[in-house]
Amino acid sequence: MTPPFDDAAHRGMAPREVVASASSDWRRLFAASASPVPGATTALALGVELRQRVRRDGSAWSPVKAETATARGLHRHGADVLVGLRPLERGARDDAWIKGDASWDEVRRPGNRYDPAQARWLTELHSIGRDLRTYGTFSDVAEWLTLDDITSSLLWPHLEKAERLGIPIVATKRHQSVELVDGASVSVRVSQRSGALSVAPEVVIGGAEADAASVRPIGGSGVYRFEVTGERIRIDLARASVPDAVRALLMASAPVEVPAHDAEEFIAEHLAPLSRHVTVRAPGIEIPSPDRPTLVLGVRFSPSHRLEYSHSWRYLGRDDIPFDAPDPTDRESEAEDAIRQRVEEVWKEESPVEWAPTAVLTGLDAAEFAARVLPRLEALGGVVVEVTGERPRYRELTGDPRIEVTTVESPDPDWFDLGVVVTIDGRRIPFGKLFTALSRGRRKMLLSDGAYFSLSHPSLARLRELIEEAGELDEWETGPRLNRYQTTLWADFEDLADQSEPAVSWRVIADGLRDAEGVPETPLPRGLRADLRPYQRAGYDWLAFLWHHRLGGILADDMGLGKTLQLLALIAHTRDAGERRPFLVVAPTSVVSTWRTEAARFTPDLRMSVLDGARGEQKRGADAPTVARAAASADVVVTSYTRLRLDESGFADVEWAGLVLDEAQFVKNQATKTHQAVAALRADVVYAVTGTPLENSLSELWALLALAAPGLFPSARRFREEYVGPIEQGRVPENQEGGEYRAGRVARLRRRIRPLVLRRTKELVAADLPPKQEQEVAVELGPAHRALYDTMLQRERQKVLGLLEDLDRNRFIVFRSLTLLRMLSLAPELIDPEYAHIEPSKLTALFEQLDEVLAEGHRALVFSQFTSFLGLVAERLEERGIRHAYLDGSTRDRDCAVASFRTGEAPVFLISLRAGGFGLTLTEADYVFLLDPWWNPAAEAQAVDRAHRIGQERPVNVYRLIAAGTIEEKVMALQQRKARLFRAVMDDDALFGRALSADDIRGLFEQD
Fold it and tell me: How far apart are CA 487 and CA 551, in angstroms?
């Protein structure tokens, strides 16, 4: 879930600048990272200059200097040239590009005044050539980048991006011009006269033949041509393949002459290899075909199932060439590629490991390689296998595995040791090695004498699946174990085994669920002062059923169905049953007082102690109770998540009968200190209470189950692989059908958690609840509002898309852009007071509805993520003389604000979604306005449930105001995807809302 956004921090953010105030340190901190805005940056260009090396005094000892080439200079000093690159910036005239302050160092400096995308392009260009030789002997090393020496193949795709970014490629001098030209090729022409050979390059640029004397190579990937016309010099840059030999020809000042007595050697040893890489035109000259290669595979066998192999190429009359030798110019590449392709096909079909030039194989990999791959390669044309050492003999066990399972008591009362014995062809397989092979996903297993067998047999595949569910290898110090929450897994092991023998106490737990004909009724506690509704009674019976089996669970009823009452009834029942240890209830600070009130109302006999506030606040008073003292004198201790986190050791020292986590979504992230503090508590059972056990991801459900049912899914990694990946992200094994596999995973997850999760929706159980009408209101932005939004959208889109390649690093900037657009969808003045004159379209739409609602005597809740927008609504209400209550995270007197609304003094209640999403009952309202959609549908549902809950007697009307054609429509689409995930796992067919029946419980033990 994206962290909450405090929009108050963005009220000073203008489209052109971030305004820093003396009291807002964070604004100054982030000012340097603020995005530039149109009109505030300087455009850049890539300057290209033909330069020449000269010695001014003509002495061979004088230093060489690089200077701008001119037509006169080239004539006078010769064509010892090179091309330099440097950044330029736009001058005072739009068509002028000047040196200015632009330099390679300046464009790389953070916070410069240049267009970010263009500066990044130039920085990347510099990086492409930064490790190569530049004008190291000249004084302008920092000013110029040498194009001639850039050999990277990234150069040309990068240059082609310049136009899309609005970066012109221009000459730095008026008497020079430069152009990128499509289409260039380089070939070699060999002519013969009197037995001697003349070798020269031929270059075609843009479809026309170029004078090779005016062409120079750019590394091995391109060429440039300089052409002098009068006083002007034209430079053409073109991509082309330039092998090293051809590059040398281009750098020569004239064709290369080969004497007649060397011609035969040149043709055989140089021209023939060159013809593999470039077109050679040699009229009247016969160029011999190179000899054909042979691939040699050398294999050495060693003891302990060790095998080493390596590849090399063999040509007649030459030493063997290492397979990955870097220089292929004197080899037959096409023939080598054809042989390699045939070898890789055999490897892909038969080998247990991926192909590599050299490798060392051990164990099963060596055995399968020797048995399957080598015979195929020995029969392959163009391949020679040379074996050294003794080649072992292997055999495969092909019988069906026989499996026996047992459970044995262990010193840890929460765990049972699990024994598994597997026999194949009458041979007992060591389970330690078998378990290691299965848990690591191996396909086969090799025994010490060379026998091996497949692990893909259906019974072993199922055994692997159950082992992965039961736990991780690292978690089993002496062997596999089952947790007492994994009763369904034991049944699966029983179904798999040919013979099973459970431990006595494990059988008691498993049979207690297996033999139950549904959840039995439990007598209501003597001290309960409430008439439970039927579904509340069913929830109480379910909680008592789990309590008697010492199992925790998740009570996931909708908001407003009386979850607190059900838990209080359970705690009172444990008192009647003789339990004297206290229960600990942990809740958000705003909900702590609700427990005290509800307990006094429904279970007055329970001794209640409230430890609220931070630990430091509790120590101010001499009589303030410590955790131990409070626990010693109370049946129920209620505290906040904040207090628990700050006084973790104090709560961990007490042995609690049970732990209740109210609004348990506060501990949905396993990595937080609060979750870790809860996990450290000592309690017989843990009950997680939340209407939203799954908000953004299944990982949140796992985090709650890790507390309420530790051991049900012991490994977070396995849970991600087995459930999160297939269900949320569509990751499906290659041999599985996507939809069917995903549906199977959903069904399996629901079956696993079914006994430990109870969820009832208001629509399912509260027949007397009045209807709820929900309506989306599309709000069209006014012309000025729309124009501003579209302009800002284009700017932010361009910025964000450029950051998505490294989202983790740029997450804050991306989130800031999204938030800016969400605020702009509401009101332009939220991002800059300068736009206060633009009427917010959504405010107009809100008051069109709200004025009519209030005129008819109704009361309304108005929710928004942005307190600044709630402030605008408050101003409009005051202008109309309408009293209102207000609640956000900074509200000091929360109870006073709530009371003013409940009494009718204020008919409108403005609430920030984060501050008012839970812990409030506001059934006095029958209209709810959601001014802006949030990413999380569960958060909105909780806000609506402030009014639509037990006690509401009137129909509730919900209006979602959505700015048409804005990011808000995308947010709604995201909501729908998350809602589908929640329904698939939690709500489908009211799976978690029905009372446990005999068939349900038998279903826990069905084989997948």
Answer: 11
Give residue for tokens 């999760």.
757
- Chain segment 478-494, per-residue pLDDT in tens: 455 666 555 555 556 65
Query: What single-letter amino acid sits at 725?
Result: G
Task: Give one word for 459, left, alpha or beta, with left for phi > 0 and alpha for psi -120 to 50.
Answer: alpha
Residue 582 domain flag:
yes
Residues 939 and 861 in one domain: yes
632 and 719 part of one domain:
yes
| Residues 535 and 766: beta-carbon distance below 8 Å | yes
Residues 777 and 740 in one domain: no
Alpha helices by DSSP H, listed for 603-721, are: 615-618, 627-632, 641-646, 648-652, 673-679, 698-708, 716-719
Same-domain pairing of 863 and 964: yes
CA-based torsion, 751, 756, 761, 766: positive or negative = positive
Nearest to 343 by CA among 305, 306, 384, 371: 384
Question: Whole-angstrom Cα distance, residue 678 to residue 124?
Answer: 49
DSSP letter (8 states) at residue 864 = E
| SS3 annotation, 596-627 | HHHHHHHCCCCCEEEECCCHHHHCCCCCCCCH
Place of tokens 């007071």: 833
- H-helix segments, 380-482: 431-439, 458-470
Compute the distance between CA of residue 469 and CA of residue 299 in angstroms, rounded to an integer.
41
Residue range 94-103, pLDDT digits in tens: 678 999 889 9
pTM here? 0.44
C-alpha pair distances (Å), 989 with each of 759, 764, 945: 11, 10, 22
Are residue 145 and residue 199 in the same domain, yes or no?
A: no
* pLDDT, tens only, 163-185: 999 999 999 999 999 999 988 99
Enter the tokens of residue 327.
């220089």
**Residue-number span of the structural domain to which 924 is assigned:** 772-782+839-990
CA-nearest of 661, 670, 653, 660 to 635 is 660
